[in-house]
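User: quick one, sequence for these tokens?
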């Protein structure tokens, strides 16, 4: 059980049997009242974000999420539907292949390459999300040429990465460069050698 002041950013809690991730928390006290923890919680099954206040006497159970390494295999168009199918396999057992919905993946595949290891989060035996590193290194596939002296727009240009994601990068970035991208904000961090 977590007391009201232990419900912090990036913790997983269970409310009414549903797992939530704490997106933000702020403990404050109004004049002569007792402290309150004002939080924003993301439902890990539906993705909906709610606001909830926890008072001094309240406590909630920590959600028991299991994490397991998996390998992202490929994405293909469904034959019957116009949707895409996302295929994975267990890291330790290549024969066990499975498909996940786009709603479970969120934006994880924007930063993931085929045959890359990811972490699957499971709740009650069902995969409810994918965890990726905060920073990933990706190859630049398309970058428009930079024009000398063109810094009126902040000195950045849009580049397309190997996963198809488009990010804003400095003018000196060119095709073939490897760059580090923050997966939480989707922003350029640095160029790697």
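Assistant:
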């Amino acid at each position: 059980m977590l007391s009201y002041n232990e419900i912090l950013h990036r913790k997983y809690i269970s409310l009414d049997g549903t797992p939530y991730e704490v997106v933000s928390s702020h403990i404050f006290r109004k004049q002569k009242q007792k402290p309150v923890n004002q939080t924003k919680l993301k439902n890990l099954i539906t993705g909906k974000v709610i606001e909830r206040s926890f008072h001094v006497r309240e406590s909630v159970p920590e959600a028991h999420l299991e994490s397991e390494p998996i390998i992202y295999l490929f994405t293909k168009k469904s034959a019957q539907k116009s949707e895409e199918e996302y295929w994975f396999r267990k890291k330790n057992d290549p024969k066990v292949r499975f498909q996940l919905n786009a709603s479970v993946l969120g934006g994880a595949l924007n930063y993931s390459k085929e045959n890359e290891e990811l972490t699957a989060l499971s709740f009650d035996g069902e995969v409810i999300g994918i965890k990726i590193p905060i920073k990933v290194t990706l190859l630049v596939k398309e970058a428009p040429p930079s024009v000398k002296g063109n810094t009126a727009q902040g000195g950045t240009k849009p580049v397309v990465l190997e996963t198809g994601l488009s990010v804003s990068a400095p003018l000196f970035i060119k095709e073939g460069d490897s760059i580090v991208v923050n997966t939480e904000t989707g922003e350029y961090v640095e160029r790697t050698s």
